[in-house]
Structures are given as C-alpha cells and as structure tokens.
Amino acid sequence: MSPYESTDDLDVEALALAVERFTGVFIRLASVERMSFTTLGVLHTLDGRGPLRLSELKASEQVTQPAITQLVTRLERDGLVVRRPDPTDGRAVLVHITPEGARVVRGRRESRIARLAELAGHLDAGQRRAIAEALPALSEMSALAVRLPHEPPPASGDR
C-alpha cells in the first residue's frame, strides 16, 4: 500500500492521478482569451477571492515579488485589474479585477462549461451520476485546502 493511501475505501493515489489528468485537460478546455496560466491564475484568484495585496497574490500564485509586480503592471495596462489604496492600511494597495477582467474569467468559464457539456454527453448515465455524486466531496476538499494549513507528508523515517 502506498503511504498516501487511506485505509478506507478511497485510494488517494488514484484520486491524485485522476485529478492531475483532469486538471491538465480542464485548464486547456477554454478556447477564448489565450493567456499564460499565471496571468489567468491571477484573474481567477481576484475574481474568486476579491481584492488582494500583491504579497497575497504572490503567495497564491507561487511567483516572486518582481514577477507578480510585473504581471499586475501588465494586467493594469491592459485594463484587466486596477490598484487602489487599502482602506485599512494607507501604505498598501489592493489589486482589484475590473469588469473587463471579470469578463475574461466569465468567458473562459462559459467556454469550459460548453466543452464539459459536450464531453459529458459522451458518458453513460452511470458515469454522469457518479460525477454528480462526487461534486459535494470535491467542493469540500477544495474548501479544506484553503482553510487548513499545508503540512508536508512525513518523511519515511518519521513513521
């Protein structure tokens, strides 16, 4: 048994592989607004979480401070984000998504939904039902990943 497999009926290694494969396909499903994954990540993060400081964007997108500063400057120039003073700290700024930036996110989501609907149409009823039944658990796992601090797996000598 892999050290990452649960002892119950969930094969975590198989889950990881399925999610990795699906994610690789999913992020490429949208046929509109071709941009770098980091650029799109920033837009999706701001659309989902609201205005953030550059340091928060740097952490969420896992890039360097100079890289996020340069990216936000480019997005601002393109009219997709704006920087505004942080009302709670006059020294800081918050990056906000603009209506045009939100339109990019919405357009990509709509494109993905259309493609997913097409793909789901090729599944049998049982497969579609299985996906539908998994949605609450997958949503909860996403929420847990945000709420719980990341703890690396134990080293093999720590068991």
Q: Can you offer a commentary on this structure?
A:
- The chain is mainly alpha-helical.
- The protein contains six helices and two strands; from the N terminus they run ααααββαα.
- The chain has helices at residues 12-26, 37-49, 54-61, 65-77, 99-120, 125-147; strands spanning 81-86, 89-97.
- It has a two-stranded antiparallel ribbon.
- Helix 3 crosses helix 4.
Short account of what is shown:
This protein is mostly helical. It has helices at residues 12-26, 37-49, 54-61, 65-77, 99-120, 125-147, and strands at residues 81-86, 89-97.
Features:
single chain; 159 residues; two-stranded antiparallel ribbon; 6 helices; globular
Strands of the biggest beta sheet: in what spatial order?
Answer: 1-2
Q: Assign an overall shape.
A: globular
Percent range for helical residues? 55-70%
Number of helices: 6
Q: Roughly how many Å apart are the termini?
A: 14 Å
User: Mean pLDDT, rounded to whole units?
Assistant: 87
The largest pleated sheet is described as:
2 strands, antiparallel
Strand content: 5-15%
Low-confidence stretches: none
| Count of beta strands | 2
Structural class determined from secondary elements: mainly alpha
Name the helix and strand elements from N-terminus to C-terminus, one letter apiece: HHHHEEHH
Using the CA coordinates, give the radius of gyration: 19 Å
Multimeric status of the protein: single chain
